[in-house]
Write a structure and sequence with these properties.
1 helix, 11 strands
Amino acid sequence: TQSARTEPPCGERLRGAVVVPGPGGRPVGAGRPEGRRPPALEHPPTLLKLVGREEFTPPSSFGGGACAATDDCIVIAVREVEDGPTRLSMAVTAPSGLTRLGDFRLLSEGLVGVRDLSYREHEAVGVDAGWATVTVWGNSVDQPSEVVIQVVGA
């Protein structure tokens, strides 16, 4: 019998990534005993996921923007870890001095949380179950280093 297939993590489903050579121009995967290594990705960079449910459906493409969304998952492309930390906060009011990256409706079971690609939760806020209004703000329209997620419950 075949085993049940599970959905890959959100970043593995995103399209448009460009494979780049490894350090020193060597092909990615060289030097590992099994000869295989995950490719280095040029874009999208590090990703944050804003989820409203434990069983969520990530978007399959960015479509050229800094954010992409489904009914229960918003993905935000932020700068590479090597370029420095990304400041993240959640708010109920609009921040000043940042650019609006997108407006979304997010289906929630009562908690909206921000996770990285390893599924570690970094921030969370309780909301009424149902649809929450979410605005994503950043200090840059391309790979922001500061992100504020404005959440207004149902």
